[in-house]
Design brief:
Low-confidence stretches: none
Structural class: mainly alpha
Distance between the termini: 73 Å
Order of helices and strands: EEEHEEEHHHHHHHHHHHHHHHHH
Mean pLDDT: 95
Number of strands: 6
Bound molecules: carboxymethyl coenzyme *A
Largest sheet: 3 strands, antiparallel
Radius of gyration: 24 Å
Number of helices: 18
């Protein structure tokens, strides 16, 4: 017998209104309130969008209660263990794992588009050496729109989107490495055609005109894991930003540049930098973990333990589990003993036993251990959010593309409840 479609009923001021239920492929449910205002003249109010689905998406599945994360249906644990970042990018953007030929073509296009336009190189010297590399990255990514005017058409062809995606994925490494070199007043190291994605980035970051950086497989592998784990995380703050900016038909370079700015904030991708700075502060302060835990619990809420808590994960962050192990493996493999890793582990242990954090389900997130890996590789702290941006690039592109291709996509335009002054008259300045 055919089942009655599920509906939600709203009883409001003596009337009943019905709304359809939308069910996802993992049985997630939503009440479709698109017609709520026209039917009732009410809107919903949900600051921070904790309960608001902004779109339907087939890219990433996340179950925060069970600690599940899957890209296009494949568990993150399998991808982190077996795939490369380039393969992961293809999977996220095009929905399927590439075959050998597709992968080769995709990888080769990165080599082809790794260089920046020679005029863009002049931009770097216009920034102060002390400038934050996220500021440089977001401006440079937006500037790409000026150098590829043929790719900023509000209704791009499929080929244009593919080319823009490759330009972004490839050039973000070059911009990041050049921003680092600028901060050190060192000459830029151009990309090399014979190097793969991550080795090429390491080469541009750490080689000098006189000496090539020795690319160690364990470093490439650790960095690969981090980029893969950052590649997408469904409707987070920066991805929602990319989608909302793109919903006005702004081009992909401009939309991603806005995403980079959103990621920069310390509550989002800037947290990895904050975590290491926090651990350094605790170390300088004699390793007094208890003091910092108490500070984070103070009722004035003026201090947070960075790297703990997540809007969606309320059990554990599966990415943090993988990264913690990776940090151990890398540091052991490189023979590095970093006291910050010891402090981080002690802090995690103490937090997990503490009632304040237990009650609020605050667990280490992706940013808690990632900084320790970046630090071991020799990446300076202000570059950590930039590393997150390199990793998140395929996710931003995939979401922008999905939004653009969706027949239901509309300009993003939330409503509000006005709480300001009611009607009053203008008073001329000499009568105020
Ligand atoms: N330290 C101390 N208390 C915290 C923390 C923390 N790190 N995170 C949340 N709380 C408390 C918060 O004060 C609130 O307490 P109360 O119920 O007494 O008012 C409660 O836990 C719920 O917090 P919330 O701010 O309402 O939670 P949210 O979902 O809005 O925020 C978060 C999520 C990630 C912004 C927040 O947990 C946080 O600020 N964490 C530290 C920054 C951080 O590590 N960010 C990286 C997130 S993972 C990478 C990414 O995807 O961006």
């Amino acid at each position: 017998m055919p089942q009655e479609p599920e509906k939600a009923e709203l009883h409001l001021n003596g009337k009943t209104f019905e709304f359809p239920i939308v069910t996802g492929t993992e049985n997630e449910k939503a009440i479709d309130i698109a017609k709520l205002r026209s039917a009732t003249s009410y809107i919903t109010l949900d600051p921070g969008f904790g309960n608001t689905g902004a779109c339907e998406s087939a890219i990433t599945f996340l179950d925060g209660e069970k600690g599940i994360l899957r890209y296009r249906g494949i568990p993150i644990e399998q991808i982190a263990e077996q795939a490369t970042f380039v393969e992961t990018s293809y999977l996220l953007i095009y929905g399927e794992l590439p075959n050998r030929l597709q992968l080769e073509k995709f990888s080769n296009s990165f080599t082809q588009h790794a260089n920046l336009h020679k005029d863009m190189l002049n931009f770097f010297s216009g920034y102060p050496a002390t400038g934050h590399p996220m500021a440089i990255l977001s401006s440079m990514v937006c500037s790409l729109s000026a150098y590829y005017p043929e790719l900023v058409n509000p209704e791009p062809s499929e080929e244009d989107v593919d080319l823009t995606a490759v330009q972004l994925l490839s050039k973000v490494r070059t911009i990041a490495a050049h921003a680092y070199k600028r901060s050190r007043n060192e000459p830029f190291i151009p990309p090399r055609a014979n190097l793969k994605y991550i080795p090429n980035f390491l080469h541009m970051m750490f080689s000098s005109p006189k000496k090539d950086y020795e690319i160690k497989p364990e470093v490439v592998s650790a960095l690969m894991t981090l980029l893969i784990l950052h590649a997408d995380h469904e409707q987070n703050c920066s991805t929602s930003t990319v989608r909302i900016v793109g919903s006005s038909w702004a081009n992909l370079f401009a939309s991603v540049s806005a995403g980079i700015c959103a990621l920069w904030g310390p509550l989002h991708g800037g947290a990895n930098q904050e975590v290491v700075e926090m651990l350094e502060e605790i170390e300088k302060d004699g390793g007094n973990i208890k003091k910092y835990i108490e500070k984070a619990k103070s009722p004035d809420k003026s201090y947070r333990l960075m790297g703990f808590g997540h809007r969606v994960y309320k059990n554990f962050d599966p990415r943090a589990k993988i990264i913690k192990k990776r940090a151990d493996d890398l540091l052991n493999g490189m023979g590095i003993h970093d006291p910050l890793l010891d402090i981080a582990k002690k802090l995690e242990e103490a937090v997990l036993k503490d009632d304040y954090f237990k009650e609020r389900k605050l667990y280490p997130n992706v940013d808690f251990y990632s900084g320790i890996i970046y630090k071991a590789i020799g990446i300076p702290t202000n570059m950590f959010p930039v590393m997150f941006a390199i990793g998140r690039m395929p996710g931003w592109i995939a979401h922008w593309k999905e939004m653009k291709e969706s027949p239901d996509s509309k300009i993003g335009r939330p409503r509000q409840i006005y709480t300001g002054r009611t009607l009053r008259d203008y008073i001329p300045i000499d009568q105020r």
